Amino acid sequence: MLLPLLLRQAAACRAAPMRLLHRQAEHDLLRRRLPPRLHAQSRNRKSKSEQQQDEWSTRNKTVLTYIAAAGVGMIGLSYAAVPLYRLYCQASGLGGTAVAGHDVDQVETMTPVKERIIKITFNADRHASMQWNFKPQQTEIFVVPGETALAFYRAKNPTDKPIVGISTYNVVPFEAGQYFNKIQCFCFEEQRLNPHEEVDMPVFFYIDPEFDEDPRMARVDTITLSYTFFEAKEGQNLPLPGYSYN
Amino acid sequence: MSTAMNFGSKTFTPRPPEKGAFPLDHFGECKAFKEKFMKCLRDNSFDNSMCRLQSKDYLECRMDHQLMTKEPLAKLGFRDLMDPPPNQSDRDSKP
Questions:
Q1: What is the pTM assigned to this prediction?
Q2: Chain A nearest C-alpha distance from B80 (Å)
């Protein structure tokens, strides 16, 4: 907005000295006065307006440079925002994302917190069109944070044709989900059951010992682990929840 | 599941398991160990701490039958159950 205004002013300035010169010349001819003073004055005025011109044009250029730099900066910031936000979420644990620092070596060195007993209840679900029979083999199990635990589900294919299933899981309460670490399970990969086949599906997991130190978890005594099986079409891949964060 | 479009609320993001998925035990090779474990759980009112030996046995069975990648048991959290050299291993077969 300002730019055209500035340009118009600059143009006006350029035109002004010409008009001024004309007027001066007319004055001189009419009044036959050619005081050198006026010439000098007009020359001064010309150089002053030229100076103004120069000032304005440099100011224009500076403003343009600043605006261009700001534009490029904004574009760069929008590209940088993606990994920065991800880092921030990991560091602060906002939105339920997995807190960074879950490493496999922790399993080796963690010590169980024997005073805090947590009940894990199991739930098994399947999609409406999934024909497997799927149920947990124990309704609940009592664990302590820092101790690895094993649990079993059972799945049976009662039909006459092989069915491929794929499962996902859910942990309630949501905030406890970040402390629930599965070492190995049967989820996120296609599992094929032949006709009339029945298998045991284990889940090997542990609750992070830091669970005991989190004030938000102070009243949490029961965690529910729920698995849901869907039928998988051959060759279809469930996207692994690697980078998903919401 | 977590279909919420509300950014402030608590949502659940599933995480893949650390060591991947267990291959299915189609032939029931470790069924006996699993039964021992389940019996132990039922006898101890589902207290996991009492049945860790059985769960260790089950995982060892899986590893022996190529149903699980072989790993030192300490890495699976069984450091306290690590038995010393084989002269004491006959004690583990107690149900």
A1: 0.62
A2: 10
